[in-house]
Amino acid sequence: MIPTDWTLSLWIGAVEKVSQTERNILLSRMLLKLKTNYDYIFIDVPPTINVFTNNAIMASDFISIVLQTQKQSYTSSLKTATHLGELREQYDGDFQLVGVILYLMKPRAKVDAEITARAKDFFGEGVFSNSIRTQERVKTFTNEGIRDKDRWDKRAIQMYQMVLNEQLLRIQQLEG
Question: DSSP 3-state assignment of 98?
Answer without folding.
Answer: strand
